[in-house]
Design a protein that fits this description.
Layout: E1 3-8, H1 14-28, E2 32-37, H2 44-48, E3 52-56, H3 66-75, E4 84-91, H4 96-107, E5 112-113, E6 119-122, H5 123-126, H6 129-145
Parallel strand pairs: 1-2, 1-3, 3-4, 4-5, 4-6
Helix pairs in contact: 1-6
């Protein structure tokens, strides 16, 4: 059994809901998923203990929100070279943040990109059965790919 750390920032609960369903999908794949808010993930050595990493946040002004940027500063101190990484987030107008997250994970942190890439989900879709299933599927495929 592999272990996956799912770290997220959520201001209105949408990305948190995504994180919960993605973590559930990882568990459905037979792997362990640990869910943490970005403000709780403060130790680079704890990040290193996981086989795969999923980071999520909403897009604010076409960018990554400040609390997630703060977490990324900590995460960049962890030795995660070659580990699989994925990114996700919710949005209303523009979904740049997950793409930016994955770019940082693969470029600066030298992680292997998840085959499905960055996962963006519009907030109104998240509230549907299809939206929640898409989150499950993203987590399940991530877990199966480890």
């Amino acid at each position: 059994m592999k272990s996956v750390l799912v770290v997220y920032f959520s201001a209105n609960g949408h990305t948190e809901k995504m994180a919960e369903y993605i973590a559930e999908g990882v568990r459905i794949s037979g792997n362990r998923a640990v869910l943490k808010k970005a403000s709780e993930a403060k130790e680079p050595d704890v990040i290193e203990e996981f086989d795969g990493l999923l980071f999520g946040c909403p897009t604010y002004n076409r960018d990554i929100p400040a609390p997630m940027k703060k977490f990324l500063g900590i995460a960049m101190l962890a030795d995660v070279d070659g580990k699989m990484g994925g990114a996700f987030g919710s949005y209303t107008h523009d979904g740049n943040a997950p793409v930016l997250l994955l770019d940082i994970m693969t470029g600066d942190m030298k992680m292997e990109p998840f085959e499905l890439g960055a996962f963006n989900l519009k907030e109104d879709v998240l509230e549907t059965t299809e939206g929640l299933k898409a989150c499950h599927d993203y987590g399940k495929v991530f877990g199966e790919s480890l």
